[in-house]
Each structure stands twice: as structure tokens, then as C-alpha cells.
Design a protein that fits this description.
This protein is of the alpha/beta class. The chain folds into three domains: 2-51; 64-275, P-loop containing nucleotide triphosphate hydrolases (Rossmann fold); 280-346, no CATH class. It has helices at residues 9-16, 20-23, 25-43, 45-51, 64-74, 79-94, 114-125, 140-143, 150-167, 183-193, 217-229, 239-251, 280-293, 300-309, 328-346; strands at 102-108, 135-139, 172-176, 208-213, 271-275, 312-313, 320-321. The strands form two sheets. Strands 2-3-4-1-5 form a five-stranded parallel beta sheet. A two-stranded antiparallel ribbon has the order 6-7. Strand 3, helix 10 (183-193) and strand 4 (208-213) form a beta-alpha-beta unit. Helix 9 (150-167) packs parallel to helix 10 and helix 13 packs across helix 14. It is globular and about 90 Å long. It starts with 8 loop residues before the first helix and ends with a helix. The structure holds adenosine-5'-diphosphate and 2-acetamido-2-deoxy-beta-D-glucopyranose (NAG) (2 copies). Adenosine-5'-diphosphate binds at residues 75-78, 108, 110-116, 212, 286, 324-326.
Length: 347
């Protein structure tokens, strides 16, 4: 549909070449030739998609080495999340006909990189990332705040997902604050996640659904702390060290709001992705990355100051950051003012 738009150029060209074509047959031929060449060129996806965002063609695979490089370079201290996501995405994108959409459930404390990883992954599928019209981010408290309107939300959400996936099969849907989402709204997503060939003529099997929640974050933190206390390396924490804990604490805990829904019962979640609490060395990496992104030279004095301003738990040992890297940007803004102020004063 989108590719027919450049045909509008044909009449436009005639307007631009007034008179010329009316007289000489040769010119007419020439003008038509030019017009059709131009139309063909403009409507060619390689050209067209430079200016208008296009949905990736069927069969277009994700570049796994690019995703790995992005995660290696940008996501700090999350070896488990990195491994699980790479494995999941590889399996999904190498499979020419997946049986169901890819469904990842990201768990962990605030500020540990759940949104950040979702964004990196989304950028690999749709280069515009969160700005892409094929990437959709929903926040429980923003999009579905009122519990008495669940019925409306359900309908709206289903229409959106249907419309979006019809427009682009590889749409990405990110649901933040899953633990604050009403079970009724979660259930509205369920039919799309299941092993159906098609629902009403639309196939959802190329789509990616990502759920983010803090559910289980306290259990993951406790496991990480136990590891630290027994002198073991963080990098040696394995998925199997966390899974039993979480399956009891979150997945089989009927009191953990999120899991009232039947998504768990039906085993629709493909991968459970744990995010570990971040240590001060990771916070420092975040500060350095943020400074570099803002185009400053990295100043280790400021890095240390910002890292020191964060609060850590347990209170005595100060091992893990309370808010992960979440407040790094805001804290750096304040330091930036100081730095800029100094420069101004001196200059
Ligand atoms: N593990 C991490 N590696 C690199 N940056 C991180 C990490 N965790 C958080 N950040 C930084 O902190 C910001 C907030 O993190 P976010 O992903 O929103 O946390 P969450 O979604 O887990 O609450 C991110 O935009 C990113 O800049
Ligand atoms: C994948 O990404 C890597 C690194 O970004 C790049 O060098 C390579 O050319 C890409 N491969 C394809 C097939 O696009
Ligand atoms: C065609 C269609 O239904 N598009 C919807 C995609 O999702 C967004 C929300 O992220 C809706 O606003 C669009 O209407």
C-alpha cells in the first residue's frame, strides 16, 4: 500500500514541465520515461525506506552479532539477562516459522536495566527503537490506571495489538509495570501469545512481547547477596540458582498480583529473564557511559562523587545500589551544572 504513494509524482512532473511535453512526441516519450524511472526509483524499498519507516520484510533476520555487541558494550553487570535474551532471540529469529510470538518476562529491582535491554532489543528489530511506529510501550499506571475501566482497556488493547500486527508482523510490544497491571488486562493479551496459527486471519507469530516487572526482585537480590556473602563471584550465579526460588516466590505464589492471570498456567512465557542488583562498580560504568553520551571527557572524580551519592543496601556493607543506575542521569545533571558553572566563572 505504502509503495503506491510515489505515483503521485507523475502528475507532479507534468506540472513541473509545462508545455514541454505538449509539443514534441520525443519529449513526451522522454518525460514519460523520466517520470516512470523516477517513480520506480522512488518506490523502490531501498530508497523509499530511507525516508519512511518500513516494516522489515518477511525472512529478514535479526543480526545476532550486532545484538551481542550492543549488549556486551552497553548493558552492565547482567550476564544472566544477556545470555538468556541472546539465546531466546537467536532461536526465535533463526526459526522461519515460529509456533508462537516470542515472549520474554524480565524481572528485577528498579533501575537494573529492564527497560534499557528492551530498548536495545527493539532497536535491533526496528532501528528507530522506541520512536519506531512498530514498537509499542505500555505502562500500567499510565495506559491502564483505572480498575473500573478494565473492560474498555481490554477491548482497546486487543484492537491495538491486532491493528499493529496486521500493519507489521514483527511488531514489538513492551509492557512495563506488569505487577501493577490488572489481571483482566493481562488476560486480554493472552490470546495473542498462544500457539494459534492465526487469529481472525492475522498471524502473531513474528511479534515480540516483553513484560517488565519488579516481581521477584527481592528474591533475586537476596540470592545475589547470599552469593556475595559466601565469597562467590557474581558472574558464577547461574539461572538454576534463581529458578527454584522464583518459581515458588512468584510463579506459584497466588498472592503476587501479576500471576493471578492464566498466562503462567498456560506456560506462555518462553523465557524468564532475571536482572541482578547492581554494585557500585556498575553504577560507575553507568556514569561513565552517560558522560561519554553527553560528549564530555570522563572525569573519574565526578564518577566517584555520583557513585557515592547513591544509596546502597545492606546499610552496613553497602553492596548493591538501591535504585540501580536509575538516578544517575539526574545526579549527573547537578554535577554538570557545577562543572559548567565553574567553566563559566573561569572563562
Ligand atoms: N545494567 C545496566 N547497564 C547499563 N545501563 C543501565 C543498566 N541498568 C540501568 N541502566 C541505566 O539506567 C537507566 C534506567 O534503567 P531502566 O532500564 O529504566 O531500569 P528498569 O527498567 O530496570 O527499572 C537506563 O536508561 C540506563 O541508562
Ligand atoms: C551484523 O552486524 C555486524 C556488527 O555490527 C556487522 O559488521 C555485520 O555486517 C552485520 N551483518 C549483517 C548481515 O548485516
Ligand atoms: C493500526 C493500529 O491499531 N494502531 C495502533 C497501534 O498501537 C498504538 C498504541 O501504541 C495505537 O495508538 C494505534 O492506534
Amino acid at each position: 500500500m505504502a509503495r503506491s504513494v510515489p505515483l503521485l509524482w507523475v502528475p507532479l512532473l507534468w506540472v513541473l514541465l509545462p508545455g514541454l511535453a505538449a509539443l514534441e512526441p520525443l519529449s513526451v516519450g522522454l518525460a514519460i520515461g523520466v517520470a516512470s524511472a523516477l517513480t520506480g526509483y522512488l518506490s523502490h524499498p531501498r530508497f523509499y525506506c530511507n525516508y519512511v519507516e518500513c516494516c522489515p520484510r518477511a525472512g529478514q533476520r535479526l543480526n545476532a552479532s550486532a545484538l551481542k555487541a550492543q549488549l556486551d558494550n552497553r548493558l552492565f553487570g547482567q550476564h544472566l539477562a544477556k545470555d538468556v535474551v541472546l539465546k531466546a532471540v537467536l532461536g526465535f529469529s533463526n526459526n522461519p516459522s515460529p509456533k508462537k510470538p516470542l515472549m520474554l518476562s524480565l524481572h528485577g529491582w528498579a533501575g537494573t536495566g529492564k527497560n534499557f535491554l528492551s530498548q536495545i532489543l527493539a532497536e535491533q528489530v526496528h532501528p528507530a527503537g522506541l520512536r519506531s511506529k512498530f514498537v509499542h510501550l505500555f505502562l500500567a499506571t499510565l495506559h491502564f490506571p483505572h480498575h473500573d475501566q478494565v473492560k474498555l482497556y481490554k477491548e482497546q488493547l486487543q484492537n491495538w495489538i491486532r491493528g499493529n500486527v496486521s500493519a507489521c508482523p514483527s511488531s514489538v510490544f513492551i509492557f512495563d509495570e506488569m505487577d501493577k497491571m490488572h489481571p483482566g488486562v493481562i488476560d486480554a493479551i493472552k490470546p495473542f501469545l498462544d500457539y494459534y496459527e492465526e487469529v481472525d486471519g492475522v498471524s502473531y507469530r513474528k511479534a515480540i512481547f516483553i513484560f517488565l516487572s519488579n516481581a521477584g526482585g527481592d528474591l533475586i537480590n537476596k540470592a545475589a547477596l547470599d552469593f556475595w556473602a559466601s565469597g562467590k563471584r557474581r558472574e558464577d550465579i547461574q539461572l538454576k540458582d534463581l529458578e527454584p526460588l522464583l518459581s515458588v516466590g512468584v510463579f506459584n505464589n497466588k498472592n503476587s498480583g501479576l500471576w493471578h492471570s492464566s498466562i503462567i498456567d498456560r506456560n506462555l512465557i518462553d523465557y524468564f529473564v532475571p536482572f541482578l542488583p547492581l554494585e557500585q562498580r556498575h553504577v560507575k560504568m553507568c556514569v561513565r557511559a552517560e558522560m561519554a553520551a553527553r560528549g564530555y571527557a570522563v572525569d573519574e572524580k565526578i564518577v566517584q562523587e555520583v557513585a557515592d551519592e547513591m544509596t546502597y543496601f545492606p546499610k552496613e556493607e553497602r553492596i548493591f545500589s538501591d535504585k540501580g543506575c536509575k538516578t544517575v542521569q539526574a545526579k549527573l545533571d547537578i554535577h554538570e551544572d557545577v562543572v559548567m558553572g565553574d567553566t563559566k566563572a573561569r572563562g
